Amino acid sequence: MRRSIPLVAAALGAALTLTACSGGGDPAENEEPAPQETEAADDGGSLTIWVDETRQAAVEAAAADFEEESGTTVELVLKNYDDIRTDFLTQVPSGEGPDITVGAHDWLGELTTNGVVAPIELGDKAGEFADVAVEAFTYDGQVYGLPYAIENIAIIRNTALADSTPGTFDEMIAKGREAGTTYPFLVQVGETGDGYTLYPFQTSFGAPVFTQSEDGSYSSELALGGEGGTAFAQWLRAQGEAGVLSASMTYDIAVEAFKNGESPYILGGPWMLGTFEGMDLAIDPVPSAGGQPAQPFTGVQGFFINAQSDNQLLANDFLTTYMATEEAQIALYEAGDRTPALTAAADTVAADPIAAGFRAAAENAVPMPSIPEMGAVWSFWGTTEAGIISGAIEPAAGWEKMVADIQAAIDAA
Amino acid sequence: MSSPQVPQVVAPRGAPPGQSSDGPDETIPARRPSSIARTFSRGFLAKILLLAVVDALGVYVVMAAWAQESFGILWAMVALLVVANWAYFTRRAIPLKYILPGVAFLLVYQVFVVAYTGYVAFTNYGDGHNSTKEHAIEALLAQNEKRVEGTEAYTLAVVEGAPGLGFALVNDGEVRVGWADEPLADVPDAVVEDGVITEVPGWTVLPRAAVLERQQEVVDLRVPVSDDAEDGSIRTQDARNGYVYRSTFTYDEEADRLIDTSNGLEYAPNDEGNFEAADGTTLPVGWRVTVGMDNFVQAFGDTRYSTPFFKVLAWTVVFAVLSVVLTFLVGMFFAVVLNDDRIRFRRVLRALLILPYAFPAFMSYLLWRGMLNRDFGVINTVLLGGADINWLADPWLAKIAVLVVQVWVGFPYMFLICTGALQSIPGDLVEAAKIDGAGRLRMWRSITLPLVLVATAPLLISSFAFNFNNFNIIEMITEGNPRFADASVPVGATDILITMVYSVSGLDGGAAKNYGLASALSIVIFIIVATISVISFRRTRTLEELS
Question: What distance in Å separates residue A366's CA from the closest CA in chain B?
Fold first, then answer.
């Protein structure tokens, strides 16, 4: 009998493994804690919320208030922000998803097509939010999330090197050269390009991605081609030749260079501010390169409710009563530097000139399209831009081919 | 690198215990005490204990599966538990005791994964077909139940009475109550304190905890505003506020039709997992259905993909073969050199050579990507004295760059296994060859190389299979770029099959996700790799005959 001990140990190992994969009926699911069953709710029930690292502390604070008042147990699950979208999509149908997750408004098209997100009625509270925030979370006439922050890119200026940001791109470059730094202006491109960051320049040539109707919603009709698109492509090549834009300029290199005072201007968002701590900064609107207003994308972040959640009531109550408060939204602002979506909170933080600067730069901004067709744009857009900048792709023809390829991808879907 | 999998052959030692005469199945009462004393040895106790732990964990899994209603897992676990208990308590299953853990691992990690991928390959699982039909119907109904524009928001309380749950709400200072079957009606003498309804005659106002206990019921409750259904119904999402909603969709369960009440259109389920109207319009939320060979047809039938596919296939084979050959040659070179007694500090040098292997490959890839940057990378600015070489944007240079990184990351593994193989070559063979007057080259060709190859061939084959699907190196260094200039799909010069699958099926976010297509292509890759591996293993048998 003695010699079977190792075998039993091995069997134990096997069983342990089986336990580890016991959820393995769905390959996408991982070691998330199982969602609470309703019958386990002996007092005020329990809520599971997916958060990422930046938002953890702020949500924790609001959850503590909620727990105290309602007797509910709130469990925060820390997730990598990049994983949340896919995991939410795969885990909600299997019943493993959280009750609430953080997310961004541009996921909305995909989330609703897959039926994993529940509508939220903001009621009279809707008026307390910035219009753009509620619009961004509206899909086909229904609101699907509680917005908490608005983010957009703007020119971050090192006040020690330049006293203002001129209204046009060429003037800004000229001023940047006067400053005598290594770079007149920094913007990330990278070998795979960056359609998001270069978008304000593209719109200044009158080439938005999709046509937009009066109420701000996007149609699936591509608008980035045409004369405006060609002009933008040629501008990209010219800036590439002049060395102002470069495909080897990655996010890390650009941020590091700005931090070291190698340029008076960088085009970027509030997520960069943490790196620039201690610098004297000002935030200005993006100058126009093509004559028309430069419109950056607005991204709105918010909370989604799982359509299959057994705790719809609790989840709604938590969001509309505890996360839609000035206090909670300011806490989120402090954690992530993004302008609060709640107008009252945004007004409070506007005392900070940086926050006010980003808010002012958002004046021209347009919401990032949340329609599913946008997915097909990303994979062609950036690489084409990078190719044009580095000279590998002929501007006019390359841009035209890109538009045709995107159209083909949309049609094939 | 994947580690070698050497089949374990365990020779049985001694006679199986079942054949001893004093086993517990002996029924002579007089002998029983001694039999128990013997069988309850420490080993037996340990076995009982360990199996108890295994069983406890297994039962836990069964219970968890029950709670999740994952019956496939439940029955698989029950079967495994029964087999495990039987195998370790019976005396008739000696071989099974050895192979059971291995078989269990095989079932979970290989058979299940391959079978599941195979199953998904024949479905349309992906964006728009993410779940079951029930979920799709639920979602469509929820998405089309909208708040009636211009209606008020009401302060609301959940009340319970003879007809069940109802809503009480404040309207123009009056409290009105209704339930599922009865529209709202005024209730006099109700008490409202600070905007909260506290008392309703004839009804109990449910406290918060009671509401939460029945939250599903509360969320599902619709109280008609009036006798006219067109006026909509009251519902609440937080048990504090009520709003008037009107649903534009109804589901007819018997006919299995979704009906749009605003225009009378009827949507019937179709074969693709969507609700479709007579005029061909479909509703956005669909469900998962099996679609036969559609995914395979799409993978090879779409002309946009066929040209790049063969280019990518060719590069994948070249990449996998060169990865193995180059790393092996470099690794063996260092192994042979460092195997020579005349070299000093051999230990230090060996340790240094293994360093890239000790460093996480992920980090290496990222560091190399930075080093290969055209304007800021160390390679251009320092090593090549300010050269302007666009390593990652030129198709050929990018391929070379990937292979160089691959050699850097992979050669220490080959160095290790070659060193091991060299040291196991018997000294008398070498001596005999020397006596026979063989030269260095001859010795190398006829003794060293064949013996090293015999020992390492299975590892080379597994290394090939690994590199055929080496997703990380491509995704971390080039992301498949530079793109093919003539292709209309996001596929590039350094894409290998698995990274192409990743982008083609939208898993990188560049298109609508299509897990069905991804699985179908994965199956194709699996078949290619399996075929090549089987053929290679057959060929290595001839090598083994040498020794």
Answer: 21
